[in-house]
Specification:
The protein is α/β, with parallel strands linked by helices and 389 residues long. The chain has twelve helices and twelve strands. The strands form two sheets. The protein has a ten-stranded mixed sheet, covered by helices on one side. It has a two-stranded antiparallel sheet with strand order 5-6. Strand 8, helix 7 and strand 9 form a beta-alpha-beta unit. The structure holds S-adenosyl-L-homocysteine and iron/sulfur cluster (SF4). Iron/sulfur cluster binds next to loops.
Length: 389
Amino acid sequence: MMPSGSEKPTSILDASEIAGARSLFGLNYQQLTALMAEFGAPVYRAKQLSEALYRQWEEDLGTVSTLPKALRETMQKSGFKVGLPRIIESFVSIDGTERYLIAGNDSQTVETVWMPDGDGGEAGDGSEAGTDLRRATICISSQIGCAVNCQFCLTAKLGIIRNLTAGEIAGQVVAVLKRHKVEIGKKRINLVFMGMGEPFLNYDEFMTAVRLLVEEVRIPQSRMTVSTSGIIPGILRFAQEPVRPKLAISLNAPNDKARTEIMPITKKWDLAHVIQAVRQVPLRPKEKVTFEYVLLGGLNDRQRDADEVGALLRRANLPLKVNLIVWNPGPGMPYSMSDPHTVHLFQYRLKFNNLPAYVRRPRGRDIFAACGQLKRTTELVQLGGIRFR
Ligand code: SAH
Ligand code: SF4
């Protein structure tokens, strides 16, 4: 991360050092241009370097053959490396989902999930349901751990360990794309910023990563969704962004009282103010805001909860849809999964209230890859995971 105030780096060489052992991955075109200038190389070298990093997914500066050997050597002598994050461990689910541990810039690991056929929640209109080999979804982490402390989420148990850098965030995507030899433009890739952490509490690095992914890696912004627990200052900044993912809000309860019990952050930013902030986001044609609702058995999955959610969201008067997520269990957590009949009734009741509602298919529960299960659970998976009702 960049230091503040008087410590601000004077050159891009300093900046990249701070971003982590002089990694090139994570620097945008302007920064690469400044870097090339510091090495006395012409501007077009920045374009070549950007292509090598974000389009060809090179891992070794030594093999970037578009750059002159002398320039590569000088850069290496100055301590520069590509710095594309490496996948160090992977778990494969019976449903095809893969969960990766990816090396961060330090000894920490980052979690990323590959869903070969999505979870039905991306388009939200059901049109993407079913197996389609031409599309996939990558679920990306924005922090290691999380400070928000939602009671039903396993990531919360870690607390906040640290923010990820823009390079570490965008790097998860490229590492996974490379692993699956994805050809951008041929295969439809959805990105969901719904892994570990609260993206809007690491706003600058998260948005820098988004811009890298849109402008350099060339994944359309319309294929990206960010989910927030309702960090109002972040939502208001997001509303000003010319390039941005679609927005999802973790609603999870029909009113402030019930939501405070499971998401204590509601005390700081209540639902009325969160919805008011969401209304500031200028939506693109046909764009909808997603409201996610984790169904906790017997707690927030009753018919009257659905009616209250219906009334709340109708008052919001926004183009929106609701994504229902059956709670994914974690060890020692005092919740249960809603049974399929209850889930159906809840969905039906929302529809009855004129709200489009979809049920997300659970992905990778057996390898702790599903929503809210990311917690570097190597040991648990090795022990055979946990039992489900
Ligand atoms: N921190 C952000 C994004 C990551 S969580 C946020 O909270 O929005 C992504 C989604 O998973 C959120 O909607 C969250 O409510 C949900 N979630 C968390 N724990 C879960 C669990 N155990 N089962 C199902 N969904 C969960
Ligand atoms: Fe953090 Fe999201 Fe988990 Fe809440 S649900 S603790 S905001 S990752």
